[in-house]
Write the structure tokens for this entry.
Amino acid sequence: MLKILTAADKILIGTVISIIVASFFALSAFSVQGSTVLIQVDGKTVHKMNLNESRLVTITGTRGELHIETKDGKIAVTYADCPQQVCVRTGWRFRSGDLIVCVPNKTVVCIMGDESEEIKAVTG
């Protein structure tokens, strides 16, 4: 199939890919910094805290413990009692709407933005 593409086609494809990649980085630069963290276990909120405070919290999930740390406006699961450690490997998060999920422990860490910064509705 590559033999059918002309030089102009290849330039067009490269330009479109470059625009898509640039758009992704531009949109992520405008994301809202989160300010509040909600921690839920099995659908129930068990902890709410300020993202800008440095804290280490131990949460008991349905399978075991999770250590959740906040510092410098970011949050991460630093330890989890689960086999694959996906929540730990998620790393540090800070944007409003970011989630860290530990499926075996049925635990969700959700970053919420400041209510004054969030858009409630858009009308035409």
